[in-house]
Amino acid sequence: MGRTIFLLISVVLVAYYVYIPLPDAIEEPWNVVWKTAFVKIGTDLASFGEFLGISHFMETLQLLMRFQEVPPTSDENVTVMETAFDSVPVRIYIPKRKSMTLRRGLVYIHGGGWCLGSADFHSVFLISAEFTYDTLSRWTAHKLDAIVVSTDYGLAPKHHFPRQFEDVYRSLRWFLQKDILEKYGVDPRRVGVSGDSAGGNLAAAVTQQLIQDPDVKIKLKVQALIYPALQALDTNVPSYQEGSHFPVLTRSLMVRFWSEYFTTDRGLEKAMNLNQHVPMESSHLLQFVNWSSLLPERYKKSPVYKNPTPGSSELAQKYPGFIDVKACPLLANDNILHHLPKTYIITCQYDVLRDDGLMYVKRLQNVGVHVTHHHVEDGFHGAFAFPGLKLSERMQNQYLSWLIKNL
C-alpha cells in the first residue's frame, strides 16, 4: 500500500512539473519542457520556504544558484581571471591567440531580475535555463577575439536600486579609462556593452548615462540588448497580458523581480500586479510606454489605449525607482536617445518583455539611431543562453555576426 501511494504521488509530481503548456511554434518542445521544469522546481521550493518563513524567496534561489558557480578556470582558448574595477567584482576573459592589433572590448552584464545570477554562473542543473554566463563569456571572447569583462553587481533583496545601476556604471567607467584599456590591449574606439534581461536593462541605462557624463572621454561604439526589461510603469502591455504561461518568465515572476529591485515591501508588488502604482502626478511619463503608438499593429490587443489606473503617491515617494530613467531606460527623452550608439536588440515572441524591446526599437528609430532589430518568432525569454537548443545557437550566431561587423 505504501509503495502504491508513493508511486501515485511521484506520478502526480512528475506530471505537474513536466506538463508545461508551450506555444505550438516553439522548437524542440520536450527539451524546453525538461529544462523549464527545473525553473519551476526552484521557484516552488523558494515559494514554499518563504511561506514557512524560512527564507526570503530570492535568497533561496540565490542559495541554489551558488552551487552552480565555477571558479575562474582558463582553457585552451581563453585566459580567465578575476579582479575588481572600482571595488566591483569582475571576471575577465582574454583570448590566448596572439593579436597584432588592439582587440575589441565588450562589457557583459548578466541578467537575473536584479536578484539572481553572477559572472561565475555556469550550469543549469537546478533552477535556471538562462544563466550560463561563464560559458557565454568564454564563447564570446574566443569567437569575437575580444576582451570580455563580465561584471557583477549587488543583488536584491540585500541591495536595491540604485545599487545595481551604480555598481555597473562604476565598473564600466573604470574599464573605459585609457590606461586600463591599454593594460588589456583594448582599442578605445571599439568598446561595447551588452546584457540580457535585467542585464539588458542595466546596459541600456548605463549607456544613456555615459553619453551625459563629461568626465568620460572614451564612449561606447555599440550596445547589444538581449530581451531587455525597460519599463516598470505599465505591467499590462500586451506581452504582459499574454505572458501568464510563457516559458521561464511569467508576468507574476517579472512583477516580483521589478518590485524586489526597489523594495522588499510587498505592497509595491501588489500595486504593480494590479497595474495601479503610477501616481497621477507621474502620468505624463506614460507617453513613453504608450504601446498603442509604439507597437506594430500585430501586437496591439485593444483598439484604444487606456492609461493604467492612478496609484498612491506614497508608493512613488517611498520607492521612486520605478519612475526613474536609470531603472526604466524607456523613459529617456528623445534628446538623450538621439545620441546613443549603434544598437542591436533581440526580442522574442513568447516573452513578457517583448513589448519593452519593441517600443525601444521604435523610439530609437524615431530619433535616427542606427538599430538592428532581431525578432525571434519562435523565441522565449532565456532562449539566448538556453544550452543545447538549436534556437540558442542561431540566436548566438546572429548576435556574434552583428558584433563582428559593428564593434
UniProtKB/TrEMBL annotation:
Q: Which GO terms describe its cellular component?
A: membrane
Q: Which SUPFAM superfamilies match?
A: alpha/beta-Hydrolases
- Give the record's keywords alphabetically: Disulfide bond, Hydrolase, Membrane, Transmembrane, Transmembrane helix
Q: Which residues form the active site?
A: 197, 351, 381
Tell me the superkingdom of the source.
Eukaryota
| Keyword Chaperone recorded | no
What Pfam family is a match for this entry?
Answer: Abhydrolase_3
The Alpha/beta hydrolase fold-3 domain is annotated at: 106-267, 324-384
Please list the GO terms describing molecular function: carboxylic ester hydrolase activity
Similarity comment: family membership: Belongs to the 'GDXG' lipolytic enzyme family.
Stated name of the protein:
Arylacetamide deacetylase isoform X1
Q: What is the protein's species of origin?
A: Mus caroli (Ryukyu mouse)
The lineage, from the top, is:
Eukaryota, Metazoa, Chordata, Craniata, Vertebrata
